[in-house]
Amino acid sequence: MDQLLADGIDEADVDRWVRSACVLCSNGCGCDIAVKDGRMVGVRGVADDPINHGRLGPKGLHASWQGMEHRDRLTTPLVRRDGELVPASWDEAMTVVVERSRALLDEIGPLSHGFYTSGQLFLEEYYALAIIGKAGIGTPHMDGNTRLCTATAAFSLKETFAADGQPGCYEDLDECDALFLYGHNMAATQTVTWSRVLDRLDGPEPPVLVVVDPRETPVARRAAVHLAVNPGTNLALMLALVREVLENGWTDDAFVDAHTVGLEELRGQAAPWTPEHAAEVCGVAPADIREAARIFGTSQRVVSTVLQGFYQSAQATAASCQVNNLHLLRGMIGRPGAGLLQMNGQPTAQNNRDCGADGDLPGFRNWQNPAHVEELAQLWGVDSLVIPHWAPPTHAMQLFRYVEQGSIRFLWISATNPAVSLPELARIREIIAEPEAFVVVQDLYLTETAELADVVLPAAGWGEKTGTFTNTTRTVHLSEQTVDPPGEARSDLEIFLDYARRMDFRRNDGAPLLDWSGPEDAYRAWQECSRGRPCDYTGISYEDLRREGAITWPRRPGETSVQRLYADADFATRAEYCEDYGHDLLTGADVGKEAFAALAANGRAILKSAPYAGPHEPPDDEYRLRFTTGRSVYHFHTRTKTARAPGLDAAAPSVWVEMAATDVAEHGFSDGDIIEVRSRRGRIVAPLRVTGIRPGAVFAPFHYGYWDAPEGAEQRHPTAANELTVTEWDAVSKQPVFKTAAVRVARTEDAR
Amino acid sequence: MKLPVYLSLLAESETTLADSYLQVAGVHGDEPDVHFLCLTMAAQCQAHRRMLDGVVARYGEAPAGHEPERLHADGMRESRTGPLGLLRDLQDLYLLASFTDVTWMMVKQAAQALRDADLLEVVDACEHEIAVHVRWLQTRMKQAAPQVLIAAR
Questions:
Q1: CA-CA to A24 of 20 to 30 Å: which in A360, A407, A576, A596?
Q2: Any residues with CB less than 8 A from the CB of B104 and at least 6 apart, and which?
């Protein structure tokens, strides 16, 4: 069992341990928070939690509590007056917010309002925000930073199975005989799950590991086959793997016949992609592609996990759907050891997808299905016309574009830091700072984004509020309030409810739209919303969570949890039930109800594909290298919490850039040189590390913004990888493409 | 036989559509989805045109002074700017794509009546892509219209 207590604190000193789960990656490890004298003083893993079995990762051990206990916490609202953010009372701050909100609703209407939220709030908070946006104001402009981390996971599931919902579970890792990690550096992103994999790799009968990643990551070093593809070429590789499985007859024909549609179209799309052809595009050996395909095609129990190397790269949804296709072709879904895991990045990303404070409607409802919209209208007591459903909710990049163009003039950002995490930062900083856009930021700290806001609201965070959240394998934990928030900080739920009260949002019967007094009211309302949908929470109460710890959805009253979805191979593809009718995977064109119905999938999964198009900004004579971004094991998101944990900050204090030895020699660089990486949009300056990354590629971690840097560092010594990235997104999932910018490099002086 | 007239018309409209996509891609670079997808779709139209060249050669050029001049759909000479301009440009593309789409339909009908398997193969390869263009343009306009017509400056 992993445990860390503050210096000078022994177990015997701890007043009490409070049950929670960790919010520093999508794993959701069960943990107990140590409390002494009303403060959080440490954390320990929960030994019988099925997700982590007592283990915790470095981020969870250090930053989960140290990241909350820092002197920099916001303790009072701030309002911009004469250009400066100055302290204000809650009443003053909320009055400013509500007055601007009302004025814009009167002048322009709901389309003037946008909300950009997080993958870090609790379920109850997302559901409150979703109702405020969809039934209170009635704007389609609401999304989360989940668009950056998990949108492709959701869309790849919606395209293939017609509804969100992680098919597999972590227990599959214990039983698989082959493990494929697609663009997933698990050793950095989910350390506890990687430990579980290491138990297998170093134990009896280890699974065969195959890794797709341009970098020689720790997971790649353990792989039997490492496919170090050129950034942006995943789909070519995947079509070749599909083709090999088809050509060699490794398919489970009975399963494919009974439970899928679209085989002939898939066969046609894959046909040109011989291993040789794909090898040329991807920059890997044909024999390695054949070997990877043989492993997939001949193993008995394959687990696949997919993450940002696919989700944030070119043709993200199309490439990720090929992973689904491989599992379907081999009938490897819904049974022990044959697990498909389209992973999430953030701890509560799944709840945003459940509750619809992102690009979804709550409860995996279909915006194109009038009956689903009417269900929401009934639940919320409003007319269905109020709920925007003429198009999908506006995706994050479009939302910021509307702010840039001045048609969204009220933007409320909660628990995220777009000034560091969105692509092309110079542009994003300008948009947020635009004087005509009224920006509210709600956060723990004065982030790079909060510094540009008109109103800053101090939020309570983990350990300071009660709520539930759901990890990447549909497992729900309850996180209990342990200590009081600092100063006047309030939970995000309280803030949203206060806004709803002040705006006087009402149901048709005159009652308040949100009459909840606390998180459990919100949770109960959510349970009703989830009833009968794939993410059914009606059999998971606060009481159950306190008693049982971790519980997986769906669970209906009196029933047990469904550990693996689709064990019966009955997929969510019935038109009246499905969450989405799907899209053309090349363009994102809506399939629409009629064409979906004509597919007659009716419970069968859909084998979808697209022609390979390649990255949109390939290297050229001016910018010869391919830039890709990623994560450090020691940091989460924009380091808001992790850099405030001294141990993590010391382990990875500043940005670096990785290049291959051959490229370094060609440029006449040496390891440790300070280099400038420049794209068409900006530059960063960082020390060089020579690593096992594939030649032609340049890597930098994306965590390093400017809140702890000297004034003006954005110009003089830029360190945020997103200075370089391109404003572009996947045609289907609308997830930004962080991993395929063209760059050039030069040695420079350290300007710090 | 008047099929050569329609084959010329189709080949011409694929070229016109490709040029119009390139025109819109060039002007609307700040809308990256529009920009990049228009480039992708322009390349598809150019490929269709090349596939049609063989068919046109086989059936012979349309006689001069024939209907195509009057049937011809004008391309987009210049694009507009701003949110409303984007919507109008997408709408123009939609008209051109629909024109191309329905022309394929008629050529396909004739190909079936002629039992021309080679031409049917060309139709199979191209027709579906143009139909997707039409759907994508609809999808994008449906998303953009409310903001443009109600809230845009």
A1: A360
A2: B10, B123, B126, B127, B130
Contact across the interface for A731 and B33, Cβ inside 8 Å: yes
Q: Chain B: nearest CA to A735, how far in angstroms?
A: 12
Cα A521 to its chain centre, rounded Å, is 27
**C-beta atoms surrounding A742 within 10 Å:** 22
- Tokens, residue A704: 């390093």
Quick check: B85 contacting A, CB < 8 Å? no
Q: Is A401 on the interface with B (CB under 8 A)?
A: yes
* From A392, A584, A727, residue closest to B136, measured CB to CB: A584
| Burial of residue A40, with CB atoms counted within 10 A of its CB: 0-12 exposed, 13-18 middle, 19 or more buried | buried
Residue pairs spanning A and B at CB distance below 8 A: 71
The answer to whether the beta carbons of residues A17 and A34 sit under 8 Å apart is: yes
Secondary structure tally for chain B: helices H, strands E: 5, 0
* Per-residue tokens: A438: 């009224």
CA gap A81, A700 in Å, rounded: 37
Residue A653 DSSP SS3: coil
Q: Is residue A663 within 8 Å of residue A695, measured between CB atoms?
A: yes
Domains belonging to chain B, first-starting first, are: 3-151 (1.20.1260.10)
Query: Chain B within 8 Å of A391 (Cβ-Cβ)?
Result: yes
A403: nearest CA in chain B? B152
Give me the mean pLDDT over the A6-15 stretch.
Answer: 97
Whether A5 and A42 have beta carbons less than 8 Å apart is answered as: yes
Residue B134 has a CB neighbour count (10 Å cut-off) of 18
Give the residue from A234, A236, A214, A238 showing the smallest Cα distance to A226.
A214
Nearest-CA neighbor of A233 among A584, A624, A739? Answer: A739
pLDDT at A434 over 50: yes
Structure confidence at residue A706 as a pLDDT band (50, 70, 90): very high
- How close B151 gets to chain A, by Cα (Å)? 5
Q: Alpha helix (H) ranges present in A50-185?
A: 58, 64-66, 90-107, 123-131, 146-149, 151-161, 171-175
* Rounded Cα distance, B27 and B76, in Å: 12
User: How close, in Å, is residue A317 to chain B by CA atoms?
Assistant: 15
Q: Quick check: ipTM above 0.90?
A: yes
Assigned fold of A3-66: Phosphorylase Kinase; domain 1 (3.30.200)
User: Whole-angstrom Cα distance, residue A561 to residue A553?
Assistant: 6
Structure tokens at A99: 């007055």
Say whether domain A151-343+573-606 belongs to CATH 2.60.40.1120.
Answer: no
A297-336 pLDDT, tens digit per residue, is 999 999 999 999 999 999 999 999 999 999 999 999 999 9
How far from the centroid of its chain's Cα atoms is residue A342's Cα? Answer: 11
The CA–CA distances, whole Å, from A43 to A4, A6, A33, A648 equal 6, 9, 5, 15
Residues in chain B with CB shorter than 8 Å from the CB of A390 are: 142, 146
Residue B153, min C-alpha distance to chain A (Å): 6
**Domain A78-149+348-464+491-531: CATH class, spelled out:** alpha beta
* Domain A625-747 -> CATH class: mainly beta
Identify the band that residue A752 occupies on the pLDDT scale cut at 50, 70 and 90: very low
Contact A404, A99 (CB under 8 A): no
A722/B contact by beta carbon, under 8 A: no
Question: What spatial distance separates the first Cα and last Cα of chain A, rounded to whole Å?
Answer: 42
Task: Determine, for residues B135 and A592 on separate chains, whether the beta-carbon distance falls below 8 Å.
Answer: yes
Top residue of A108, A315, A587 to mutate, by most chain B CBs within 10 Å, is A587
**DSSP output for B62-128:** PPTTSTHHHHPPP--SS---HHHHHHHHHHHHHHHHHHHHHHHHHHHHHHHHTT-HHHHHHHHHHHH
